[in-house]
């Protein structure tokens, strides 16, 4: 029995749709990226999509391997929720993720993107002294659950969990510290200092009283991400870091555009 005219038109439409989808697989299957505020790697704006070093670098890498990337497609989400989302949802990735030992087998990685200093902040004049990690047991600590600083602290000092006040993000940590509702916070040093300005907090009113070994941060992808894409992005990043005739590299020049200030003076001991 021959096909009716209506069935023929339906079949033609379905074939055309399939052809269009297969002609642009990168756009049909493009990765959904997540980020929260962590300047200068990721800076949130009221008047546009996120910016920052990690956003710009991922844009360069994705475009160099002919994959879709647009900052306007990046989803802003609290760190704790974003880490969970990328772990369980195929086709997703985080623009900044610390490569901790317990996370290695739970994500796929492209990097390293950079090294991230982590420290303990306190108010000046509050009498907080942290000469060794165990001293934190004397203080209330503002933390963001499921983030790298939280995991590092819990692993180093499990008993300090009872001292923690769980908060939604770095701005909430800073406000609690400013108001004296927690004694200290543990967070990325550079990002916290930059966000103090957004909260109207003069950085000179606070000090870093303890610091941990810097964390290596990467782009973190859901485990189901195609290995070929991971290899192509890693190769693109490796090439981007290679010195050119100027003695510098595209990676260094891009990084310098976002890290345009001297590193802050950090007091206190370093975790060994």
Summary, kept brief:
Keywords: Signal. The chain has about 270 residues and is α/β, with parallel strands linked by helices.
What does it look like?
The N and C termini lie far apart (79 Å). The protein folds into two domains: 114 residues, Periplasmic binding protein-like II (D-Maltodextrin-Binding Protein, domain 2, 3-Layer(aba) Sandwich); 96 residues, D-Maltodextrin-Binding Protein, domain 2 (3-Layer(aba) Sandwich), CATH 3.40.190. The radius of gyration is 22 Å and the shape is globular. The strands form two sheets. A six-stranded mixed sheet has the order 7-6-8-5-9-11. The chain has a five-stranded mixed sheet with strand order 2-1-3-10-4, sandwiched between helices. Strand 6, helix 5 and strand 7 form a beta-alpha-beta unit. 35% of the residues lie in helices and 21% in strands. It is α/β, with parallel strands linked by helices. It contains nine helices and eleven strands. It comes from Pseudodesulfovibrio karagichevae. This is Substrate-binding periplasmic protein.
């Amino acid at each position: 029995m021959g096909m009716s005219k209506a069935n023929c038109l339906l079949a033609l439409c379905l074939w055309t749709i399939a052809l269009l989808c297969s002609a642009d697989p990168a756009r049909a299957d493009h990765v959904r990226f997540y980020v929260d505020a962590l300047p200068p790697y990721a800076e949130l704006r009221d008047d546009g999509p996120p910016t920052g070093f990690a956003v710009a670098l991922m844009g360069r890498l994705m475009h160099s391997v002919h994959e879709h990337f647009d900052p306007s497609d990046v989803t802003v989400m609290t760190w704790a929720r974003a880490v969970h989302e990328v772990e369980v949802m195929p086709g997703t990735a985080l623009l900044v993720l610390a490569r901790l030992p317990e996370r290695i087998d739970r994500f796929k990685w492209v990097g390293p993107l950079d090294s991230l200093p982590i420290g303990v902040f306190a108010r000046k004049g509050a009498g907080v002294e942290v000469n060794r990690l165990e001293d934190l047991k004397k203080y209330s600590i503002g933390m963001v659950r499921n983030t790298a600083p939280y995991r590092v602290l819990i692993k180093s000092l499990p008993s300090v969990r009872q001292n923690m006040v769980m908060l939604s993000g770095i701005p909430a940590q800073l406000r609690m510290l400013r108001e004296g509702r927690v004694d200290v916070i543990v967070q990325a040093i550079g990002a916290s200092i930059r966000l103090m300005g957004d909260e109207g907090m003069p950085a000179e009113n606070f000090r870093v009283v303890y610091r941990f070994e810097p964390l290596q941060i990467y782009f973190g992808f859901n485990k189901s991400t195609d290995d070929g894409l991971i290899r192509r992005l890693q190769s693109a990043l490796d090439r981007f870091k290679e010195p050119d005739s100027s003695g510098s590299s595209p990676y260094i020049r891009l990084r310098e555009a976002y890290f345009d200030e001297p590193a802050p003076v950090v007091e206190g001991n370093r975790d060994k």
